[in-house]
Amino acid sequence: MTDIPQIAAQPRNQWWDVWDQFKTHKGALIGAIFFLVILLGVIFGPWLWGIDATFIDIRSRNQGPSFAHPMGTDQLGRDSFARMMAGGRVSLAVGLTAMALAIGLGTLIGVIAGYFKRLDGLLMRTTDLFLALPLLPLLLVIIMLFRDKLNAAFGPEGGIFILMVSAIGATSWMQTARIVRGDVLAIKEREFVLAARSIGTPNRRMITRHILPNVLSPIMVSATLGIANAIITESALSFLGLGFPPDFPTWGRLLFDSVDYLQQYPERVMWPGLAISLTVLSVNYMGDGLRDALDPKIRGR
Questions:
Q1: pLDDT digits over 45-95, tens only?
Q2: What is each CA distance from 265 to 7, 63, 89, 262, 289, in whole angstroms?
Q3: Intra-chain end-to-end CA distance of the chain, in Å
Q4: What whole-number distance in Å separates Cα of residue 94 and Cα of residue 168?
Q5: Domains of the chain
Q6: Which terminus of the chain has a smaller tally of CB atoms within 10 A, N or C?
Q7: What is the 3-state secondary structure (H, E, C) of 52-91?
Q8: What is the pTM of this model?
Q9: Per-residue pLDDT reduced to its tens digit, 233-254
């Protein structure tokens, strides 16, 4: 009788387990699909839609929803649907870039504070100081101080983009730093880290090879929630008139421009408000799903 060779089963990648657990969270799955649709819409939508967001047609101003203009037109005859897509592109770009800056800064400070004990006190007291500062007044001061200088150096759009991203990212890293620090303090006392230290592994390799891969879970969760916070902050600053120029639409700027026409044309406020609310809600659900999927205790059930 011929022996049938036994093929050793390949070990299952843990990210497939994460995906299986993520799929069980219906809210997170729906949120991820909705966020992906919004992201693809704001990236490719302006190219597919035949009307430019800045095109002015006075004869078509203040029109309601129609086949030619699904979301109507504004007081200058500009297509609201085109401006929503263009505004979403800017708002999401600010949110993603500011989130990346905040996550990078928070992870760096958290890892250094958790791994190097002599720097822990200084860095955490600095983090507490930033947490104690009122966020919105601090952002207003930063924008008023540096807006004109950056606008002169990079132009109105580029300058305010750099300023918004830098200001939001520099004031949103503290929660990530505290979370990462706590995980690093626990991980650096684990057996595999102590074994690596006993054979003389340098600190740089210890952090990049053993510490960072084991704190990816809280970093990813913080990243998703950071996108939502950055979008809300940018929308609030634009709504206060301190964001991008009037001819450079964002969701917050569209809200600001629609306030004067709230009673006559309430749908102008409804569209950007719904976009901000649903995008933030979908990102928050994604964060909840990732938190559960990346938790080995929950994933093992």
A1: 888 888 888 888 888 888 888 888 888 888 888 899 999 999 999 889 998
A2: 68, 9, 24, 5, 37
A3: 42
A4: 9
A5: 25-41+78-295 (1.10.3720.10)
A6: N
A7: CCCCCCHHHCCCCCCCCCCCCECCCCCEHHHHHHHHHHHH
A8: 0.83
A9: 888 888 887 878 777 888 888 8
